[in-house]
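Quick one, tokens below. Sequence please?
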């Protein structure tokens, strides 16, 4: 592997570890709900699986809402009944990944997961801008 490849691999590992460790400091119940129900499609950091990474979603929610309570309420509503007009992601992300299916989780589980997602926000994270792929 050339030097550039090694640098890219190292940076990817650091980004993944930072995002994972950041999320680990939040609600263990929310993380468990994520691991059991959401991690099949959502990674914590780029590269994306079949849905946008959590740190990117958290970034967009923090851009859209200044209050946790309002952001969490919106996330719960969206996860119960996803609608493109209510998405807080870039239009390119919705075009690339489509909308998630409606969640069958309880209201309490959705709220716990949404609070964990909100708290997973990392102000140092910058979207790689790869939704156009």
């Amino acid at each position: 592997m050339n030097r550039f490849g090694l640098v890219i691999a190292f940076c990817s590992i650091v980004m993944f570890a930072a995002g994972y460790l950041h999320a680990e400091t939040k609600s263990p119940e929310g993380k468990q709900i994520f691991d059991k129900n959401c991690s099949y499609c959502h990674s914590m950091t780029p590269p994306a699986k079949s849905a946008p990474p959590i740190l990117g979603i958290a970034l967009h929610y923090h851009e859209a809402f200044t209050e946790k309570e309002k952001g969490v309420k919106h996330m719960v509503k969206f996860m119960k009944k996803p609608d493109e007009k209510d998405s807080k992601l870039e239009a390119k992300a919705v075009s690339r990944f489509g909308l998630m299916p409606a969640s069958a989780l309880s209201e309490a589980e959705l709220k716990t997961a949404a609070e964990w997602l909100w708290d997973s926000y990392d102000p140092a994270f910058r979207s790689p801008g790869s939704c156009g792929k």
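Residues 42 and 51 are 5 Å apart (CA to CA). Residues 3-119 form a domain with the Cytochrome Bc1 Complex; Chain D, domain 2 fold (CATH 1.10.760).
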